[in-house]
Design brief:
The complex is a heterodimer of chains A (150) and B (191). Chain A is mostly helical. The termini of chain A are far apart. In chain A, 66% of the residues lie in helices and 0% in strands. The longest helix of chain B is centred in the N-terminal third of the chain and has 24 residues. Classes of the chains: A mainly alpha (150), B mainly alpha (191). The interface between A and B is large, with 34 and 50 residues.
């Protein structure tokens, strides 16, 4: 026994008790334990476990910073994806610029205006629903003729 | 089962097709001494089993990073040592109380355990050992119960041999004193 005589010279009680193991291990524990371990390592590791295995202490240290970093990136991405007010106005202007009534055939124009009445607000004095209905009844008229009538 | 050398086990553990059988051999070879150490630190069988599982899981995950400049046994023992201390720290955090309260809890576990067969004097010895600060208890356990050499304990704990000798000397003195004090309070003499 290596701890032997010198170190326990002044500890007679400890010297007498050395070498006893009073702890009882349940029957068959050491037979079952390797099987339970084999099962545990056979399971695929979770994301957390894989990150820990790959990056170890770096992941542990960085973990508190991960949530704020993620929020920062997500926030920045969302912010950049939002159109600025100027861009937003430009987009409306572009839509209106593209919406040149003279470019469209009357029938197409009516369909568009019927589907998106808001677009009609930028044209002339604007068409009321009744006007549009009237136009629909006189489909054979061109837009110019209809405008003259109105 | 004959024990495999470190190099044999490591070769099995590092090859993709034999790593599971290598791990099985590793567990079978080291489960008993590691369990004994953890059990002496925690006293409770269930807690010791859980900690031992964590020890081997960590070994499984970390085996590729094991450089082999220390014996496999020391490396595993080191993991077990850290896990046992972590478990005791967790107990303390959970209880929001002092070392004494943890000692009290471990003592009551020991007293009510069906897995403790010692005579009264053995119980008193365990109670005295439990009163030691965690790190000192680990050193005492490795030296007194597990009979490891100071150089081995040094490799496990990362503490110098000189500091270990000093720590063990103080621990022996305290435990002996507590055994005597406990005995005079009405216990029986060591036979």
């Amino acid at each position: 026994m290596e701890h032997g005589t010198d170190e326990l010279r002044d500890a007679p009680n400890l010297k007498k008790l050395a070498g006893h193991d009073p702890f009882v291990v349940p029957d068959g524990f050491f037979g079952r334990f390797p099987h339970s371990m084999a099962k545990r390592v056979a399971k695929p590791a979770s994301l957390r476990e894989r990150l820990l295995a790959m990056h170890g202490i770096a992941f542990v240290l960085a973990r508190p910073a991960l949530v704020p970093a993620f929020l920062l990136v997500a926030g920045a991405t969302f912010y950049w994806a939002l159109p600025t007010p100027v861009e937003s106005n430009n987009q409306s202007t572009e839509v209106l610029a593209e919406f040149d009534p003279t470019y469209w055939e009357d029938q197409e124009l009516v369909s568009i205006l019927y589907a998106e009445p808001a677009l009609g607000k930028g044209i002339g004095s604007g068409l009321a629903t009744e006007d549009l209905e009237e136009y629909l009844e006189r489909e054979e008229l061109t837009l110019e003729q209809l405008t003259e009538l109105l | 089962m004959s024990d495999r050398s470190d190099s044999e086990l490591l070769a099995l553990l590092r090859a993709q097709d034999t790593r599971h059988s290598g791990f099985d051999l590793l567990v079978r070879q080291y489960q008993e001494p590691l369990y004994r150490f953890v059990r002496r630190m925690l006293t409770d069988h269930d807690a010791s089993r859980d900690v031992l599982q964590e020890v081997f899981i960590k070994a499984w995950r970390g085996i590729d990073g094991f450089r082999g400049d220390a014996p496999l046994f020391s490396w595993l023992y080191r993991i077990a040592h850290n896990e046992a201390l972590n478990h005791l720290r967790t107990l303390r955090r959970g209880l929001f109380v002092s070392h004494d309260a943890v000692v009290e809890q471990l003592t009551s576990t020991l007293d009510s355990s069906e897995h403790f067969s010692g005579e009264e004097i053995q119980r008193r010895l365990q109670r005295a050992v439990m009163r030691l600060p965690d790190k000192q208890r680990a050193v005492f356990t490795m030296k007194y119960f597990e009979e490891l050499k100071y150089t081995e304990i040094s490799a496990i704990t990362g503490t110098s041999v000189g500091a270990l000798k000093s720590s063990y000397h103080i621990a022996v003195k305290k435990v002996e004193e507590w055994l005597v004090t406990d005995q005079t309070k009405g216990g029986t003499s060591p036979s």
